[in-house]
């Protein structure tokens, strides 16, 4: 058995190990460009433990709900990669992190936000086989680099393919896979790119574009534009920088979607998709966007450490206004709000937007119903009443409302005029 602490470059926390040589031999295959070593002293700074017990690998961590048990190194390292991503974010709360792949095209990153069963990792390997440099196929930390460029950071981790491999991956990618080091089990195969095919841990490149994948059986590959609001909605779901305040996350994601063109790639055959991407992103027509100073100065403040519990509000009584500390972002006419606790983001549909606008001034549910009935006389009054009540309730539940202070008015005084 091999015991010690797995230490990765630029990460203070370690992984306590009590494993076999098979596990240790898998490390350079999975982490070929994230330098690591096994040390014997740790000073109680471990964020996870991997132990081989009764021929099973067990991962435990104070940040996991329950220990995870696996039969082989491949699945064990899949789970460990997730914990490593969270460990990086805990140590550097300035990082915004997206779940997705990132590939370099002409010096900038094309980001493929994660979508279930859309072939993100398969396409990553197909692009690597076509000569493109991989930054990640799983999670992409972002940070401001020289000159205020918003850049992605390479993980130095090998792509992970889900098995069995689809026929549509193509002969070029299959040949690439067969000629690279790998470890695998029934579910997954890690494929180790050679030098120059995978960016080293910590390498950066500015963001160029977003491409949302939609794999459709029998489809001829095509690219179509995605609206900024739809891109923002999708990125909100893919972000997992829980330490950063929600206002910072929302503003930064809004900046990304407004400065990086977004597309949807509909495809089935990976080689068709690769050729289309190479044609679309062979160069960039505009300079890489820089983060505005006003955003850069505030975006990386940490979220509140204490859990926020909204005040219980009886929405049937009194008037209400926006809670303090709520940030709002508009994209293509769609609106998003940050929660009072600094950790949540909310999307407003058209009906909720109308009610939110009314709440810029002290407004009761009765007043909101009356005003909306006057504005929409053809809409059933009972439907308006139900929607207003439900929306007020939802706003209150998420801490977006507060009781309007009693408006202080000068009492009426009768003037006494001299005769």
Characteristics:
alpha+beta; 419 residues; disordered C terminus; single chain; five-stranded mixed beta barrel; six-stranded mixed β-sheet; globular; Arc Repressor Mutant, subunit A; Rossmann fold
Tell me what you see in this structure:
The chain is of the alpha+beta class and 419 residues long. The protein contains eleven helices and 22 strands. It has three domains: 2-90, no CATH class; 92-296, Rossmann fold (3-Layer(aba) Sandwich), CATH 3.40.50; 320-403, Arc Repressor Mutant, subunit A, CATH 1.10.10. The protein has helices at 21-30, 73-91, 120-129, 171-178, 228-238, 246-259, 270-280, 293-296, 350-358, 365-375, 381-397, and strands spanning 2-8, 14-19, 36-39, 46-53, 56-60, 68-70, 96-105, 108-113, 134-136, 139-144, 150-153, 160-162, 182-184, 188-191, 204-215, 222-225, 262-267, 320-322, 328-331, 334-338, 345-348, 401-403. A hairpin with a 5-residue loop joins strand 10 and strand 11. Helix 3 packs across helix 4 and helix 5 (228-238) crosses helix 6 (246-259). It is globular. Mean pLDDT is 86; it is low at 302-306 and 406-419.
Q: Which band does the percent of strand residues land in?
A: 25-35%
What is the mean predicted local confidence, pLDDT?
Answer: 86
CATH class of the largest domain: Alpha Beta
| Oligomer designation | single chain
The SS-based structural class is alpha+beta
Q: What shape does the CA trace take?
A: globular
Strand neighbour order, sheet with most strands: 3-1-2-4-5-6
| Major pleated sheet | 6 strands, mixed
Helix coverage percent: 25-40%
Number of strands: 22
**Termini Cα gap:** 107 Å
Based on the coordinates given, report the CATH architecture of the largest domain: 3-Layer(aba) Sandwich
Poorly predicted regions = 302-306, 406-419
Work out the radius of gyration. Answer: 26 Å
Number of helices: 11
Q: How many independent structural domains? A: 3
Return the CATH topology of the largest domain.
Rossmann fold
